[in-house]
């Protein structure tokens, strides 16, 4: 991680440095990195996206605190996904979310029972948010109103809804 500062000083801001390891992404970004090529984002995309956005806002202490909070939630998942050779652990985690089978081809092998238990126990921090998002996508849920779109997470809670009476279908 010490190289991030040095490389940024020598090369400048135009060269984008990305972390290749979820577990060090916070410190990497705080030292001048600009993101992460993430394994965990396959399992918890929304949390990882929120984490990256917050960790890159260097002048906002509230967002940096949010980044640290999210990082703390994700750390057990990061660790569990790298106990064994990638992609077997992440495929197992994706299988728990019913996204794919956890089968891998030789020379890769599936994860051990011990690793499966560690992955299962690491997922609850990320799972509720992720599960809701994938159920919404998987069941092709659509919003029938702007309020429902907020509830489903298609709009932010802070988004303003404006009614245009000229285009109303019903009275």
Topology overview:
Elements (H helix, E strand, L loop, with lengths): L1 H10 L13 H6 L14 H11 L5 H20 L7 H9 L16 H10 L4 H12 L7 H7 L19
Helix pairs in contact: 3-4, 4-6, 5-6
Tell me what the structure shows.
By secondary structure, the protein is an all-alpha fold. It is 50% helix and 0% strand. It has 8 helices and no strands. The protein has helices spanning 2-11, 25-30, 45-55, 61-80, 88-96, 113-122, 127-138, 146-152. Helix 4 packs antiparallel against helix 6 and helix 5 crosses helix 6. The N and C termini lie far apart (61 Å).
| Largest pleated sheet | none
Helix content: 40-55%
Low-pLDDT parts are: none
Portion of residues in beta strands equals under 5%
The H/E string reads: HHHHHHHH
What coarse outline follows from CA principal-axis ratios? flat
pLDDT average, as an integer?
84
Radius of gyration: 20 Å
**N-end to C-end Cα span:** 61 Å
Count the helices. How many?
8
User: Quick one: how many beta strands?
Assistant: 0
Structural class: mainly alpha
Summarize the model shown.
The protein has 171 residues and is mainly alpha-helical. Helices cover 50% and strands 0% of the residues.
Descriptors:
mainly alpha; 50% helix
């Amino acid at each position: 991680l010490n190289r991030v500062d040095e490389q940024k000083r020598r090369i400048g801001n135009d060269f984008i440095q990305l972390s290749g390891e979820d577990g060090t992404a916070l410190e990497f970004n705080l030292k001048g990195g600009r993101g992460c090529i993430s394994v965990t984002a396959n399992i918890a995309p929304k949390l990882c996206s929120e984490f990256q956005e917050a960790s890159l806002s260097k002048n906002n202490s509230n967002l940096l605190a949010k980044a640290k909070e999210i990082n703390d939630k994700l750390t057990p998942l990061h660790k569990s996904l790298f106990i064994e050779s990638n992609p077997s652990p992440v495929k197992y985690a994706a299988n728990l979310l019913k996204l794919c089978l956890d089968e891998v081809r030789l020379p890769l092998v599936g994860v051990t029972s011990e690793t499966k238990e560690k992955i299962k126990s690491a997922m609850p921090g990320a799972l509720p948010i992720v599960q809701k998002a994938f159920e919404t996508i998987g069941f092709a849920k659509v919003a029938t109103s702007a309020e429902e779109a907020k509830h489903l997470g298609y709009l932010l809670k802070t988004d303003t809804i404006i009614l245009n009476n000229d285009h109303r279908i019903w009275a």
